[in-house]
Structure formats: C-alpha cells, structure tokens
C-alpha cells in the first residue's frame, strides 16, 4: 500500500509538473522517490532549491485541489454520520454514514485512507530530504521554514486520521527502493505496524511544537499559509481530545491566538456570504479565519457541486441529488433557538428534481459552500474560542462565568440572548449549552460527530435521534462503545497483515 503511495507521488509529479524536474543532467536514473543519482552514485531527491520549492507548492495545492478527503468526505462523516444531516443521496458509499451501517468495505473510507497516506508521503519527502539538498541558494532559515510548513501539513493529516480510526501507522520517513538486496531492510517501511492513537496524537504534538519555532507568522492578508497560528490552533484541538487532554493548554494556545489578533468576524455572513451581484464572495482572510483554501475566477471550487447550487453558475451540475441534506432535527434546533442568522447562512431552500428526504418543491440544502469562489475554511477562531469555553467548563480550573461569557459573545454576534442565570450556575447545563452552541455555530463544517465523540455523547445523542427525526433512514446498527472509531478499510488490512481492524467491525 505504501508502495502505491510513492507510485502515485511519482506519477503526480510527472503528469502535472508541479514538483521537481526528473530529467535534468547529471541525473540519469530516477526512482519513485528520487530525482535520480549523480555521477558518483549518490541518490538525489531534490536537486536544488527550485525543486524543493516546487514540491512545497505541490503540498499546498493539496489544500485546494484535492477536496474529496479533507473536505467533502469530512462533511459526510462530521455531519451526516451525526444528527446534523442526512446522507443526501441513495449511493451505497454514503448511506451507511446516515444509518450506521459502515463496514470496512466502504469506498469512501478507502479513498480517504489512501489520500491521507499520499499526503503524508509528500510531507515526509520534504521533511526527510531538505537538509541534504546541496544548493547554497537554499538558506538555513528557508530549510527550517519549509520543513516547519511540511510538518504542519503532516500534523493536520495525522490529526484527522487519528480522530477517524484511532490506531494508525505513524510514518515519518521515506521508503527506499525494493530490490532483492534491500527487501529485508525496507519491508517494514512499506508495511508498517499500527501505532496507538496516543502515539499518533503525540506525533501531531511534536510536529506542531517544532513547527511553531520556524513556521511563517500568520499573514492577515493571506490565511492560506501553514503558519505558526495554524500549529497553535491545531494544538488547541489536540489538547481537547481525550488521549492528550490538557485543558490548561487549550486555554493557553487559545489565548495566544487571541493575542495575535484573531477574533470573531463582525458579521457571521462575512464568513460564507457573497457580494450583492453574486460574482464573488463577500470576504476572504477574515480576522476569524486561521487556515483556508481560496478560489478565484478560472480556478473555482468544484466541491460546491456536491452540496447544492453554485450561485456563480446557477444551473451547473444541479441534475443529481446532493450530499449532506440538512436534517429535520438540526432545522428544528435552529428554529427552537430562534437562530435566524446562522440558519440563513447554513441552510437554503430550492426546488429540486428529487425528493429523497423532502418534497422536491421546497428542498433544503447545505449553504456554507455556495459558489465556486467560496473559501473552504479549515480552521476558524469560533471553533477555538468554544473549545476554550469547554476547557473552562470541564477543566481542573473550572470557571463557569468565563465560559458563559465566551458562549454569550458567540451568541451576541447572531443576535441571540445571553444564557440564563440558571444555566450559568450549572456545569451540566453549561456543557449542554456549549454542545448546542457548537452545533449551531459550526453546522456543516465537519465538527459535530467529533464533538459527540470527544464529549462521549455518541450513544445518548445518536441512538435517540432516529426516533425523533422522521426523515432519517432506519438505523441498521445501534451506536455503542465501538462506534467511536470508524472501520479501517479492509483492503488496507488485506495488504498489510500488521494492521488490525477496530473492534465492532
């Protein structure tokens, strides 16, 4: 399987020309993971500074061009596998996320696993080999910064993988070519053993802490960079997860981000809205955005086709049922809360040519990606701020008034009243309020399932929603303690006997 990863890397470089050249003299025989060898037989991965820079561009392009695994599938898991949404279509690969019938044969999970491993291979190629590039034009500072950017990218991928599957292989080096002489040496590199979930998270922590030293500072005019702030935001999310839970560090890094100038955007619509002419989005690089992929005319965001209409091309690709249909339970929660602002930015109704879940004449769609030019926001400050509130509710230095002030700030932006005094006085009620606030604030951003997992609410919430949501498909399997992890693709297990399936699958 890892061999396939490197084959893909080589083919991508060859076909798309976004990475290093493979045919420059004096290099003569290249392999899957090298540019070739020099006249002395020394293996060359990156010939010069330009080759490294091109490879870093390839890494950054994954945030823009490869949206299936880190965005489209993330919403399927985060929202349709929770109470926020239905699968949307009748496709066999997506329905199991709605009715809890996911198995190791699921093609979505196999695609995600393979794409994640390809991403890690790209990051490792730079991290492992940049220091050996013999080009004086590549300064020590540039080497450290590029390596830091690649480590942040690797940390983002490992974090997503660990949250999905728990125990995963943590690969931090590149594999050499397989020959009859080397097969014994490289076998474990191509067929690695699983690391524990804790070990995976520890690698995320190590990558982020190391990257903070040399990554670029956050640029208010360009939130597409793997910056120090991205590493800090990922640490906030990491330290909220149970295996690494340290709520004092959640607060520490959330406060550091605030000190760097991150804050809630003035208007919720600044995050997802379009200009009056619907020819471009309202804003990019808001003060709330920490990491986003950006799209412009000529290089639009195709993922909008998966969820609804592209408002810059209204009838484009609107002939087939879309993924991530808002659930009746989520819509009712918006309505019961009187949350019109976030509801209007999250859900839109159109006439559709299908009626899988609602009458076709008035069909709801996920609305947070409404044009080919909308940014995909991977990390935003509202998420971080609400995780700080969680730390103040759940952590050893409990401070319910401070947590309530955060939640009230988030609510005030969308014209909702402050929490009641009775809620503010109760830890249990505050946790309930936080979970609901995160649900409404972050709907259709791939967060809900992981909130339920992190706070151990999967069984209580998901086993109850099927009875109260009349539109949801019939549940196949009840949610239990094994549901907190997704099944590892069976193909991966078949290829690597060191990989063990998660319990319950």
UniProtKB/TrEMBL annotation:
<dbReference type="GO" id="GO:0009279">
    <property type="term" value="C:cell outer membrane"/>
</dbReference>
<comment type="similarity">
    <text>Belongs to the SusD family.</text>
</comment>
<dbReference type="InterPro" id="IPR033985">
    <property type="entry name" value="SusD-like_N"/>
</dbReference>
<keyword id="KW-0732">Signal</keyword>
<keyword id="KW-0998">Cell outer membrane</keyword>
<dbReference type="InterPro" id="IPR011990">
    <property type="entry name" value="TPR-like_helical_dom_sf"/>
</dbReference>
<dbReference type="InterPro" id="IPR012944">
    <property type="entry name" value="SusD_RagB_dom"/>
</dbReference>
<keyword id="KW-0472">Membrane</keyword>
<feature type="domain" description="SusD-like N-terminal">
    <location>
        <begin position="47"/>
        <end position="239"/>
    </location>
</feature>
<dbReference type="Pfam" id="PF14322">
    <property type="entry name" value="SusD-like_3"/>
</dbReference>
<protein>
    <submittedName>
        <fullName>RagB/SusD family nutrient uptake outer membrane protein</fullName>
    </submittedName>
</protein>
<feature type="signal peptide">
    <location>
        <begin position="1"/>
        <end position="23"/>
    </location>
</feature>
<feature type="domain" description="RagB/SusD">
    <location>
        <begin position="377"/>
        <end position="505"/>
    </location>
</feature>
<dbReference type="Pfam" id="PF07980">
    <property type="entry name" value="SusD_RagB"/>
</dbReference>
């Amino acid at each position: 399987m890892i061999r396939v990863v490197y084959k893909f890397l080589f083919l991508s470089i060859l076909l798309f020309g976004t990475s290093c050249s493979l045919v420059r003299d004096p290099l003569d025989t290249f392999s899957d993971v090298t540019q070739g060898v020099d006249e002395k037989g020394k293996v060359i991965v990156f010939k010069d500074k330009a080759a490294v820079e091109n490879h870093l561009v390839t890494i950054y392009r994954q945030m823009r061009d490869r949206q299936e695994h880190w965005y489209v599938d993330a919403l399927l898991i985060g929202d349709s596998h929770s109470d926020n949404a239905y699968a949307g279509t009748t496709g066999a690969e997506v329905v199991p996320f709605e009715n809890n019938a996911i198995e190791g044969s699921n093609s979505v999970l196999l695609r995600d696993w393979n794409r994640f491993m390809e991403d890690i291979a790209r990051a490792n190629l730079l991290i492992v080999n940049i220091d050996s590039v013999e080009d004086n034009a590549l300064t020590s500072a540039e080497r450290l910064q590029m390596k830091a950017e690649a480590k942040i990218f690797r940390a983002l991928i490992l974090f997503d993988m660990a949250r999905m599957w728990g125990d995963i292989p943590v690969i931090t080096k590149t594999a050499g070519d397989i020959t009859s002489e080397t097969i014994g040496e490289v076998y474990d590199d191509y067929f690695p053993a699983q690391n524990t979930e804790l070990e995976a998270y520890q690698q995320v922590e190590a990558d982020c802490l190391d990257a903070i030293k040399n990554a670029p500072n956050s640029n208010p005019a360009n939130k597409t960079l793997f910056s120090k702030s991205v590493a800090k935001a990922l640490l906030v999310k990491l330290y909220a997860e149970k295996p690494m839970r340290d709520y004092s560090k959640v607060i520490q890094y959330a406060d550091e981000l605030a000190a760097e100038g991150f804050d809630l955007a003035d208007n919720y619509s600044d995050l997802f809205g379009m200009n009056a002419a619907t020819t471009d989005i309202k804003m990019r690089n808001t003060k709330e955005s920490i990491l986003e992929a950006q799209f412009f005319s000529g290089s639009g965001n195709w993922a909008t086709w998966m969820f609804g209409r592209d408002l810059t091309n209204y009838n484009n690709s609107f002939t087939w049922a879309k993924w991530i249909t808002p659930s009746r339970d989520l819509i009712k929660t918006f309505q019961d809360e009187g949350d019109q602002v976030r509801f209007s930015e999250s859900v839109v109704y159109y006439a559709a040519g299908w009626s899988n879940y609602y009458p076709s004449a008035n069909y709801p769609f996920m609305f947070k990606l409404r044009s080919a030019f909308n940014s995909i926001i991977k990390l935003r400050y509202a998420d971080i701020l609400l995780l700080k509130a969680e730390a103040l509710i759940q952590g050893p230095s409990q401070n319910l008034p401070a947590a309530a002030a955060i939640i009230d700030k988030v609510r005030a932006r969308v014209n909702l009243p402050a929490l009641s005094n009775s809620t503010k006085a109760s830890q249990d009620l505050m946790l309930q309020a936080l979970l609901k606030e995160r649900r409404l604030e972050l709907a259709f951003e791939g967060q809900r399932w992981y909130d339920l997992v992190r706070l151990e609410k999967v069984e209580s919430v998901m086993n109850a929603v099927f009875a109260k949501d009349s539109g949801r498909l019939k549940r196949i399997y009840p949610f239990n303690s094994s549901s907190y992890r997704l099944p590892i693709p069976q193909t991966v297990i078949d290829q690597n006997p060191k990989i063990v399936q998660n319990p319950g699958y």
